[in-house]
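> forwarded from #structure-qc
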């Protein structure tokens, strides 16, 4: 039970952060289509995350409006629950439990979005399949563990929404809070270290590598939010407002961090396409004015140029500019430790599927 002013602030924060979260994810999907790229697996996970965020937005609004059975003992001693208030708090408590399912699902869907990105970066590298399968197993087990704890902490089950008499500490869900926070930190740290070998295999200027490391280690902010959130929520374990505030903060932080590489890449591709279009117009204008030699095979563009354009057109280009970067392949072949530059790999890259856009961020101009 909190005063009207802080309550209004929590409502505003909940709505603003939730809407910004949905906006970030929607921007990723709309921009992908605007660039005429097909959706990849990570985009479909993003759609699922948007659904979870929308459901949470509606559920938590009612929870904040009607309250739950998580009432401090000091308030219970001096408060008489009316039948209407008891009914509303029961409904709020039931919606609170439903919200936990969708919130947990949102977090783990975002992990899969990031894992799909890294999977495409790790293609053809040593132990790629083993690493990804290992991560998927850990994510599946951790997700099931969180959901099981979410629905088994109170026994009998009706204690989850019982208002009177006091349902006991299980209504505060301390075990669920600790389990969710711990597994969230562990899995986020796993995602944090996954792209490091990929960047390490790049032969690039140290500043470029530093940019890549900075982009891929943004996940540290999610870990930081979770670490800060755990002790604060424990100190205010009977406050739904505190939980909602920090959950909304984590919701938005996760959306920004997970979608930053894709949004950066889409913006970078749009910028490069504009530059390329401008250069092409300048070349055509120069030829029209007769300021340059015109050869039969260059009227309307050479055959070689058209062939390259046909190959590159359907590909969803990568996320990062990597001009001057070489990729070192860690695999050994025929007893040799091969190192292939970007130029030597280009034929394979040009023929890659349009769904391998994230993998190409380390190879192609974007």
């Amino acid at each position: 039970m909190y005063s009207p002013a802080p309550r209004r602030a929590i409502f505003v924060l909940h709505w603003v952060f939730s809407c910004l979260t949905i906006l970030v994810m929607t921007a990723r999907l709309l921009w992908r289509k605007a660039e005429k790229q097909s959706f990849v697996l990570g985009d479909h996970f993003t759609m699922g995350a948007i659904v979870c965020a929308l459901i949470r937005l509606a559920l938590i609004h009612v929870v904040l409006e009607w309250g739950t059975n998580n009432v401090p003992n000091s308030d219970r001693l001096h408060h008489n629950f009316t039948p209407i208030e008891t009914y509303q708090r029961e409904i709020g408590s039931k919606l609170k439990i439903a919200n936990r399912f969708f919130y947990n699902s949102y977090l783990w869907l975002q992990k899969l979005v990031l894992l799909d990105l890294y999977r495409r970066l790790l293609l053809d590298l040593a132990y790629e399949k083993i690493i990804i399968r290992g991560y998927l197993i850990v994510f599946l087990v951790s997700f099931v563990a969180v959901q099981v704890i979410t629905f088994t902490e109170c026994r009998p089950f009706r204690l989850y929404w019982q208002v009177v008499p006091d349902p006991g500490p299980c209504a505060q869900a301390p075990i669920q809070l600790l389990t969710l926070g711990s597994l969230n930190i562990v899995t986020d740290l796993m995602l944090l270290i996954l792209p490091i070998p990929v960047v390490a295999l790049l032969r690039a200027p140290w500043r470029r590598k530093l940019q890549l490391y900075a982009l891929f280690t943004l996940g540290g902010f999610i870990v930081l939010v979770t670490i800060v959130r755990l002790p604060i929520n424990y100190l205010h374990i009977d406050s739904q407002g505190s939980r909602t505030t920090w959950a909304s903060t984590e919701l938005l932080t996760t959306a920004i961090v997970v979608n930053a590489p894709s949004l950066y890449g889409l913006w970078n591709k749009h910028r490069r396409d504009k530059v390329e279009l401008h250069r092409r117009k300048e070349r055509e204008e120069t030829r029209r004015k007769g300021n340059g030699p015109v050869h039969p095979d260059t009227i309307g563009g050479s055959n070689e140029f058209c062939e390259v354009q046909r190959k590159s057109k359907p590909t969803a280009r990568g996320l990062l500019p990597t001009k001057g970067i070489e990729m070192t392949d860690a695999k050994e072949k025929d007893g040799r430790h091969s190192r292939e530059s970007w130029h030597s790999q280009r034929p394979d890259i040009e023929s890659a599927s349009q769904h391998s856009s994230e993998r190409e961020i380390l190879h192609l101009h974007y």
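QC bot note: The longest helix spans residues 240-288. The chain has one domain: 7-277.
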